[in-house]
Each structure stands twice: as structure tokens, then as C-alpha cells.
């Protein structure tokens, strides 16, 4: 089960070939997007292209299965935040939520961001240019 990070969703919207190649090569595996990643992606679309960006993002991401931030996902994110702060290596709050949703779901986060590798017990697939 692969959870798409914000940067992968943005690159998909921008038509980056590597994202389509990843999706095709993993077609037999469930794909989802944590709702915090969808939120960040849509914010970017609106900030850069206004209502047109919003409608394009809605249309182009309609195939993505959203996985919501639940109480259990929030608890995972809180654990992750505590672990990373204790180690002196925190990541951003939205990335912490994304990691919590994916870890709680037992999935793999698909991303360009290497900092997700600092999260214990989180499977990470690094793709694309970093």
C-alpha cells in the first residue's frame, strides 16, 4: 500500500513522467494519499493558479483514494513527533501528520523527501530527483 506524499502529488499535477511510471509499475498495489498531503497539494494549486488551479487539482486527483487523519493516525503522528524531537531531528508538522497516517495504515510513503527515512518503522520509497 503506497501513500503519496505532497511532492509526488504536485509532480503528478505538473505531468512529471517519473510519477506516472511509478504508478504504472505499481498498478497492482493499492495507492492512496493522506489527507494532509492532499490539503497541501490543493493549497499550492489555489495559491499559484486560483480557482482554475483548484478545479484542475480536483479533476486531476479524482482517482486518488484519500486516507483520512484519524485519532489513531494523529496518535502515530504524535509519537513520531516525540521520537524525532527527542533525537533532535524533527520534520515539519504536516510531514509528521503524513508519516502518522501512512505508518498507522501500514503503508509505504512515496516521496522525494529523504527526511522521512528518519521515522522509525515507516517504509519509505524515494523516487524522482531530490
From TrEMBL:
One of its GO terms (molecular function) is nuclease activity. SUPFAM superfamilies: PIN domain-like. Keywords: Hydrolase, Magnesium, Metal-binding, Nuclease. Residues 4-121 form the PIN domain. The keyword tRNA-binding does not apply. It comes from the Archaea. Its cofactor is Mg(2+). Belongs to the PINc/VapC protein family. This is Type II toxin-antitoxin system VapC family toxin. It comes from Salinadaptatus halalkaliphilus.
Amino acid at each position: 500500500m503506497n501513500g503519496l506524499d505532497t511532492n509526488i502529488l504536485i509532480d503528478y499535477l505538473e505531468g512529471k513522467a517519473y510519477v506516472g511510471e511509478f504508478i504504472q509499475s505499481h498498478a497492482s498495489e493499492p495507492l492512496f494519499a493522506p489527507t494532509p498531503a492532499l490539503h497541501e497539494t490543493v493549497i499550492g494549486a489555489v495559491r499559484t493558479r486560483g480557482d482554475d488551479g483548484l478545479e484542475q487539482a480536483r479533476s486531476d486527483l479524482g482517482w486518488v483514494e484519500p486516507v483520512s487523519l484519524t485519532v489513531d493516525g494523529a496518535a502515530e503522528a504524535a509519537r513520531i513527533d516525540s521520537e524525532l524531537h527527542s533525537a533532535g531531528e524533527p520534520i515539519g508538522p504536516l510531514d509528521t501528520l503524513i508519516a502518522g497516517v501512512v505508518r498507522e495504515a501500514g503503508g509505504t510513503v512515496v516521496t522525494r523527501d529523504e527526511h522521512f527515512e528518519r521515522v522509525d518503522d515507516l517504509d519509505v520509497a524515494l523516487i524522482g530527483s531530490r
